[in-house]
Amino acid sequence: MSEKQSNNPIPVVDIIIQHGSSVLFAKRKKDPFKGYLGLPGGFVNIGETIEEAARREAKEETSLDIELTDILGVYSDPERDPRGHIMSTVFIGILSNENAKNKATAQDDALEIEWIDLSTVDKKSLAFDHKNILSHYKKWKESMVAIPKLKYYSYPQSSWRLINQLRQKGNLSQASVFIVKLKYLI
Question: Is 178 a residue whose pLDDT tops 90?
Fold first, then answer.
């Protein structure tokens, strides 16, 4: 069977790897945006989920194992990538091992990696629409801080166990839907 050119957007993943107030960026080795800083990420391979692609791309570009905690959003502007209509699901991840921050090394498509404090990221030249993504991430972080902690602790313990089980299985979408449903029930 011959491969046909698809008229559909091509799926990619980008990952915001956070540690404290810093986010990890990779300097791009290839065009487009060669030499620019960008979020670790890349194309989803045939036969893998987007969650698997996110963990694989993080490992390939930074040598880090990460845990995916949330989906920030889907970025689908047809003009976001000069190669064509490429649609990105942006994940938020944390280090699987807290001591790994200093062990991150550039690999694969990355020339080098750099931890950048969120307060200074606006001064950097970033690839693709990553400045826009980081702007949304900052607002997301602020909204999370604004939610009273008491609300989180009022969920039944069994609900948290289910959410954690879904997350561990890589089922972030189901975990997110469950959390939204809980908000309206409590």
Answer: no
- Lookup: tokens for 38: 């960008």
Q: How far apart are the first and last CA of the chain?
A: 53
Residue type, 19: H
CA distances from 47 to 25, 50, 53 (A): 27, 10, 10
- The residues spanned by each domain of the chain are 10-146, 149-185
Is the CATH number 3.40.109.10 carried by domain 10-146? no
How far is 70 from 80, CA to CA, in rounded Å? 22
- In the annotation, is 112 catalytic? yes
pTM of whole model > 0.70?
yes
pLDDT tens track for 100-112: 666 776 666 766 8
What are residue 110's DSSP bridge partners? 28
- Estimate the crossing angle of helix 172-185 against helix 157-168, to 10 degrees: 160
Q: Are 111 and 27 in contact (CB under 8 A)?
A: yes
Q: pLDDT category, 172, cuts 50, 70, 90?
A: low
- Give helix then strand counts, H and E, for the chain: 5, 7
Q: Are 110 and 41 in contact (CB under 8 A)?
A: no
Amino acid letter, residue 148: P
Of 48, 61, 67, 112, which one is the catalytic site residue?
A: 112
